[in-house]
Known about the structure:
The complex is a heterodimer. Chain A is mainly β. Helices cover 0% and strands 53% of the residues of chain A. Chain A has one domain (4-113): Sandwich (Immunoglobulin-like). Chain A has strands spanning 4-5, 10-14, 19-25, 32-38, 45-51, 56-59, 62-67, 72-77, 86-93, 103-104, 108-113. In chain A, the strands form two sheets. In chain A, strands 2, 4, 5, 9, 10 and 11 form a six-stranded mixed sheet that branches. A five-stranded antiparallel sheet of chain A has the order 1-3-8-7-6, with no helix packed on it. The mean pLDDT of chain A is 93. Chain B starts with a strand and ends with a strand. Chain B has a single domain (5-98, 106-117), classed as Immunoglobulin-like (Sandwich). In chain B, the strands form two sheets. In chain B, strands 2, 4, 5, 6, 9, 10 and 11 form a seven-stranded mixed sheet that branches. In chain B, strands 1-3-8-7 form a four-stranded antiparallel sheet, with no helix packed on it. Chain B is mostly beta strands. Chain B is built from no helices and eleven strands. At the A-B interface, strand 5, strand 9 and strand 10 of A face strand 5 and strand 10 of B.
Amino acid sequence: DQQVKQNSPSLSVQEGRISILNCDYTNSMFDYFLWYKKYPAEGPTFLISISSIKDKNEDGRFTVFLNKSAKHLSLHIVPSQPGDSAVYFCAAYGRGTSYGKLTFGQGTILTVHP
Amino acid sequence: EAGVAQSPRYKIIEKRQSVAFWCNPISGHATLYWYQQILGQGPKLLIQFQNNGVVDDSQLPKDRFSAERLKGVDSTLKIQPAKLEDSAVYLCASSHRGLASGNTGELFFGEGSRLTVL
């Protein structure tokens, strides 16, 4: 039962252009969403998050959009840089439960070409 | 501030052998998580500790996997006997508190322990 899905295994973008990574979820109890970034041989690192009471959150070049009715979120990176090349994981959890459980998507490999 | 430490980084074993992974979380972090990441998939939670108590182990294959967190600090994840499908990266993560209301959900991950079962 894949509650968080990233349907694009990979994305290739030219340096300076926009990268858009997509994520869909099925569990309506999820009310907090995060993006993690992972370089090879390293653990995932937190990138940006959004609460279900918002539809947009920005942090520098990174913006996350949430469409609750469609159960869809996306991560925009503008402008994309070669150092952004990594695996990006979407994750979600429901804060209403005592401790919650972070559920991850399968990941999207982003490659930014110089 | 030191990050989450894990060892060993790599381990190769034969099926039916046993293996143990060690994790030292960030100092002061009460919550510790073990995730399994199979190649091409996202991390999957195996077990979550709050201090030295288990909060969630619903996805831990308890017939072969065990984990403990003595004194609420370091943790050990053991697999005995290992199967081919256990080949994965085992990620340890910690957070100051669990993912309760008001928390950001930011977990701090270690570099992982890559297990290959032959």
